[in-house]
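Collaborator request, handled under Task 6.
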Amino acid sequence: MKLLPKIILATLLLITPALADKADLNRFERVISLLTERSRYQPSESALRGAAGDNLAEARAGDSTLPEDLEEALSRAEDHGELQKRLINSMLESLDDPWARLYTPAESQKLRERMGGGRQASIGLALARRSSDKQFHVIGVEPSSPAWGKIKLGEVIVAANGLLYNDPKFRNQLRGKSGSQLTLRVASPTGVVRNVSLTRADYRSKTAYLVEDQPGVIRVSSFGKNTAAELKEALLQVGDHPVVIDLRYNGGGYLDAAVECADLFLPQGKKVVTVVDHRREIVHQTDETPLYERPISIIVNDKTASAAEIFTAALDSHTDSYVVGDKTFGKGSVQRFVGLPGEWALKYTVSLYKTPDDVFIDQIGIEPDLRVDMDSSFILGPSDSQLAAARHWLVEKSVADTRSETRAIH
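Structure tokens returned to the collaborator:
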């Protein structure tokens, strides 16, 4: 009877690695199934397995104990995921899909939190380094973050925890765990310098919000699950006043979120985007009455991409809007993000999209109505020429509309 606990313990030690290995094998087979069914590149199973087999041969060169058979190698691997990660990445590389990526459990959780408006540990600052002075200028302050209300747009972060901006370790000082302290040396645009103490904290980030000290400017940083509701809230706060929507550095997000946001501005039944895969075309259109129907200025730059381009093209096609800034990135493809066994995840391209004018913009981008070149470090600061141009158009549009109404009355 005394031997029973030792036998049970030994059995558990043998079973646990086998279960982990089984998850690795299931994950590998699931990736093959997903790619052959939905990828716009339409790979065959034999081609994917061939790419993985070539990589396995390279791995065996450094580990002679690995079997030649893919499934056997995965099931017997002792690294609990590292081998299958290498093999899956080799299959993704064979697709020539620039957006395909395998996410580890930690990476997939972080991405889900960011896109879902989850809590994150940060100080809430977006910085851009100016080419002329090499200093870090504040181009964004997130609501509810530790920096909100303490640091202003357009200010300069001179030092962090005593390290000057030109110190190689400066950037590392900005990162840290929730609850840790950070002291910043901050200079205003007029040259007034002060120290600001911040405590890094977990806060729920917003993806759409009114910019502090910039009346009528709504910043949309990405298109996540809560973006449409947050954008609606911001529009209700603006009321009947003109609106500038800032999409600079908006790398996209969920396609459905972009459609929901466009729905706030467009009449019912308007085409927002057409998604085209190797089997069919799916048209997404509006189904609500518009919340906001006044003229809109939209600011974009070369980092505005994907869902942000969908939103921009839809408003440009169907509303009295004006696009200012740089030519957009040109990411006219749609990716699928799907969970895998063991909390891993896979992202890969499933289709291309067309604008409401039936134009493919992948690797092409959207040309603004007015091209305004500007160093990104000036974003939302006192010398933001793109924002000035967007506001100027709104003023001119208002004057023109008033004159038109006056002529109609007479």
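The cover message to the collaborator said: "Residues 215 and 238 are 8 Å apart (CA to CA). Residues 4-97 form one domain. Please let us know whether this matches your experimental observations."
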